[in-house]
Amino acid sequence: MTMLEVNDFGKRFTIHHLNKTMQAVEQVNFSIEKGEFIGIVGKSGSGKSTILKSIYRSYLPDMGEIMYDSARFGRIDLCKASERQMLYLRKYEIGYVSQFLNVMPRTTSRQLVEKALLEMGETESIAQIEAEKALTHFELDPKLWDTYPNTFSGGEKLRLNIAMATVKKPRLLLLDEPTASLDQQSKLKVREIIEKLKANGTTLVGIFHDIEFMEGLCNKVYDMRAGKLLAGAGVINEG
């Protein structure tokens, strides 16, 4: 079953003070089946994150379509989905992990992960147990569980971000450099969770600079060059 299909997608950005419009990406086409993992590589500024943010609708696409097979709405074009529909999808079906942590102030790490679970309908007792499991798995120091993450290091924030997204077991998970500031041990923890999610049917699209991390993990790898997505960057562990 095709989970995500991107057809002739493009995105422009306008620099208003220069009165200039720039084409960030164009003619992007790919599809991904349920439970597959597509990796996207490329130099900084090539447009990789623009694709992910447009799927998540942080950016509003300019052209083409992004067809997603939603459990709630059926086949839906994310370029045309209403804000209400996108809020629902982000809450229940589509997860996003970025290098940066953007959370409510005065909310502890433990509360953030518990909140993610409660949103999915878990009971408070289960949410407490599963939150502790996730924080332990990603080796976040227990001393930090009941503190506010605005004081965390970059690596600690990223591990918390990954924990919050993955405990929800999203239908589609978007990963924007999820290992950017992590040590090797933490990368292995992330890989372990990705493998488990994939085995349980989660579909994933990820951006990486760490080619070694992707080895044996992705079904397909695409290369972004000059705003265009090129096939033939290699297929790793097909099937």
TrEMBL record:
Lineage: Bacteria, Bacillati, Bacillota, Bacilli, Bacillales
Cellular component GO terms, alphabetical: plasma membrane
Protein name as catalogued: Alpha-D-ribose 1-methylphosphonate 5-triphosphate synthase subunit PhnL
Domain ABC transporter: 4-239
Top enzyme category: transferase
Enzyme Commission number, as recorded: 2.7.8.37
Pfam families associated with the record: ABC_tran (PF00005)
Gene Ontology molecular function terms on file: alpha-D-ribose 1-methylphosphonate 5-triphosphate synthase activity; ATP binding; ATP hydrolysis activity; transmembrane transporter activity
